[in-house]
Amino acid sequence: MANIKKSFNFRSGVQVDDDHLIVDANGAVGIGTTVPTNALLDVYGGNIKTSGNVIGEIGNFTKIIATDLDITNVNLTSNVSGSGVKIGDPIGVITAQNVGETVTYYGDGQYLENIPTSQWIDKDVGLGFVSIYAAGNVGIATDDPRHTLQIGGNNNPNAFEGGVGINSEGGIVATGVVTATTFKGNLTGDITSAESNITQVESTYVNNSGIVTTTDLHVTGITTTPKIEGLNIISQPHGPTETIIVTVAPKTTNNRYYNEGNSNAYYLDGKEAPFLTLVPGRTYRFDQSDPTNTAYPLRFYYDSANDSVYGGDINVVGAQGTAGAYVDLTITGSSPQTIYYDSASAATLLGNAIKTNCSAQVHNLQVVGVLTATNSIVGSLIGDVTSTRSTSDQVDTLHINSTGIGTFSELLATQSFTGITTSSIAHVQSGLGIGINNPKRIVDIYSSGISTVDIVGTESAMIQIGQNYNVTAGIGESVGIVRFGTQDKTFELINGDSGDFNSYIHSGNFVGVNTGNFNWIYGQTNQKLMSLTYDGKLGINKPDPEVQLDVVGVSTFTGSVLITGNLEVDGDLIGGNTTLPPLITGSDIFRQTGISTFVDVDITNIVEVGSIAIGTSRENIIEAGAIDAQSSRAFVSALGVGTNVTSSTLTVDGAIAASGSVGIGTTIATSGADFARAGVPITRFLKLPRVTSSERDNLVALEGGSVIWNTDESRIEFYNESGGNWSYINGTGV
To answer: Is the pTM of this model over 0.70?
Structure first.
């Protein structure tokens, strides 16, 4: 039938080979199924292949796998997987199925174009390309940028730290190090750095409160910000008083003295410890009324160590930390080039330095090397000269005021006040004053606080004062010497001549009754070891002696002691030989040789002697500490032998040995040991040693006939030496 042109009309459908092809009465075509129910064309169990286009309004697929898919409208219930998907021609849209849902893309999105976001906005300004810009600030390494472009840092523009911020006007805030080969344009604002090294600056104005080091600087004008950032360098010098508000707050890491001195710093007009540049002829008022100043009175010094207080035109009003308190500083033509401001309390390093722009006056001149003048230095040297060595051929001046060492071939000075000056020839006409302007003596030293003079040598140190000076030998003769270190760690006071060595107290014209003492003190404990009062009482280990010699502790005299008055002994006189004067005419209490004899000796307290002979010759005592009473009787109320404690009339600690008979209860013993009348009638019995069987078996040094009472057996037992055992009294063995 393939070659015959026919037309068929099937009103009730057609079916081929049962289930290969079917057209039902409704016009639905089923391929591979006899019940086409899913659509007008229902293909089951196989693939659809076409060389043409598949055109339809809606495509509903569970899964599409294609190498090239060109679809006008796609409604997917699951997913699309393939090497490429093309939607729309030329423009297509992928939309979430429901409103509010999100379409998510995975994988490489490098070819996605024109993707809008909430921040980046496309902008075409007619330059032939489209740019994007952010509606808000852009942050890198921060999710809370407060600058137009911010890298890191915090969200506080007024106290920005730890990052870089750029605003829309071109301002840059960098909290780290900024390095550049060349800076061009106007530098406005603060440059704050420990060190800013700039090779070249080409600018109309330089505005900097710190230090700029540059090889080549070309500036057509110099400007300063108000007060702290220069304090009106180019303003009229004789204007109104400049007021600076002073507060105290903790130091930051930007402080030059961070982790040094006090933990707080002065803040001047809100700036932390700034370096100040002041104008000669003007007065600057440092307002200290803020309560944070209470413990930190502001003062000025010649040096950063606060060793020398600045004595210029200063006016202090009120107590710091209270209303109306301030300190006025007036810069004059005689002010030093540099002044330091700091606290006058124990707290230090709260401030910084001040430049006065006074070129004529130098208070602190620090020279590491040699300072040499072509001609003589003539005129008054005012201020401190601090140098390893200052050498000049000749100095002819009214005053020498130096804290260092000045070395001159010849020194001609009316007065020399401070420091040490050495020269081959030195002439000080009126005197040397240290801390005093008009010395009344050859050398006058004065300080309002503590005055110190240190004389230290690597081996020893010595001060000589005396009457004679040997010009040829260049040494003093007939001198007194204060010396330390000639013998290691030894301090000496020496009279080098044959005169006296006198010590005085209360020798002046001072009237009073509280005259002091001569004291010897051990420095480790501050204990007074010996005190000699002004009225001649010597106390040893007693700081307040009550008599002429008052000693606390044991005293030893190896020689003779002569007492011309009375001897009072409040206690015992113990040991040794004591020689006393005659108490009874013609007799001695003690003699080195011979015998002292007394008719009666009545001792009411304790007597301590070496040996005692009673009723016998002293020669019969054969050992020290013995008592010999062979032919006499001694009567005592209680006697302890081998013990100093008696619990009865006779107490013996140890064995009793008797070469004769022993009688108890009788004075005439009729046997070796007579106990026949021992005790009173109701206690006239003898108790044997009481031991257990175990204790009996541990007895040593037994002899035959030893008797015990066995407390375990309640019987008398005796030791049978021949049998080597214990037996009953009836002779039965144990």
So the answer is: no
